[in-house]
Amino acid sequence: MQVSPLLVEYRTPHRSLKYECPLSRAIAVVCMRVISLNANGIRAAARKGFFKWLPRQSADVVCIQETRAQIHQLDAPEFKPRRHHSFYEDAEKKGYSGVAIYCRREPDEIIRGFGSAEFDPEGRYLEARFGDLSIVSVYLPSGSSGDARQQAKFRCLDEFGDYLDRIRGNGRTYVLCGDWNIAHKNIDLKNWRSNQKNSGFLPEERAWMTELFDERGFVDAFREVNAEADQYTWWSNRGRSWEKNVGWRIDYQVVSPTLRNRVQRTSIYKRKRFSDHAPLIIDYELD
């Protein structure tokens, strides 16, 4: 029996948000689909078909990292997807970093940056608020280019950790989507033994992620429903890594504990490649 997409409603203190439920099942649930992707250049992803693929995904919110473009370079209609509100946060440095959010419903408020004098100019944090729900596109630094950038990454982790401490008790519900540039556990990368001294899997970085989940109380939404190995979101361009699935899981949707039991399904889309990362798709049930 064919079931028409459900019309669902997410109530906020300010208004009701109504849209078609992407789960499209004969169950009276209120649901939300969130997609996160490090595009490794939004214009490059566009050339690879990302904006032709996106409308078929029924996403309510899309979080993009590493746009690598200034807003004046994104005048083409494809960079403002139909039926979505589009927001970009660029880096001051041209061709570097940058995040974006596309959302079906117009947010109540957009927050740019997390209050860091050093890292906000790099375009690493963009937050869309819908009532008491916040959806964030976040791009944490890589330290793989050398010690100077690794030290910058550690400074960013310290500042961002302090920021998370400030917001976790503010009464809001968070979905923090993005490239965190850290594989948390051995299961989260193929060659974990040989990478223990490499940026992205350093003991200090992994300990920071453990603190994020165990002490700060945030939740790795993907691992709530998928505990399998070989689930990766990024592959090096070297050595046929994609073909052999020699990857890393460094893209996350990190959520408030109130959403722990609301994760319905998750997938990593690999049928087509738009980037060296793959889109992370998660469906949530909401009240």
Description:
By secondary structure, the protein is an alpha+beta fold. It has one domain: 4-Layer Sandwich (Deoxyribonuclease I, Chain A), CATH 3.60.10. Helices cover 18% and strands 29% of the residues. It has helices at 42-47, 50-53, 147-167, 203-214, 221-225, 241-244; strands spanning 7-11, 16-20, 30-38, 61-65, 85-89, 99-103, 109-112, 125-130, 133-139, 173-179, 219-220, 234-235, 247-248, 251-255, 263-268, 280-286. It has a 6-stranded mixed beta sheet. The two termini are 27 Å apart.
Ordered list of secondary-structure elements with their pairings:
Blueprint: E1 7-11, E2 16-20, E3 30-38, H1 42-47, H2 50-53, E4 61-65, E5 85-89, E6 99-103, E7 109-112, E8 125-130, E9 133-139, H3 147-167, E10 173-179, H4 203-214, E11 219-220, H5 221-225, E12 234-235, H6 241-244, E13 247-248, E14 251-255, E15 263-268, E16 280-286
Parallel strand pairs: 3-4, 9-10
Antiparallel strand pairs: 1-2, 3-16, 4-6, 5-6, 7-8, 8-9, 10-14, 11-14, 12-13, 15-16
Number of helices: 6
Shape: globular
Q: SSE order in H/E notation? A: EEEHHEEEEEEHEHEHEHEEEE
**Integer count of domains:** 1
The name of the CATH architecture is: 4-Layer Sandwich
Residues in helices, as a percent range: 10-25%
Average pLDDT figure: 91
Strand order of the largest sheet: 5-6-4-3-16-15
Sheet-strand content, in percent, reads: 25-35%
The class by helix and strand makeup works out as alpha+beta
CA(first)-CA(last) distance: 27 Å
Largest sheet: 6 strands, mixed
Report the oligomer: single chain
* CATH structural class: Alpha Beta
Low-confidence stretches: 1-27
Q: Write the CATH homologous superfamily.
A: Endonuclease/exonuclease/phosphatase
Number of separate strands: 16
Tell me the Rg in angstroms.
18 Å
CATH topology: Deoxyribonuclease I, Chain A
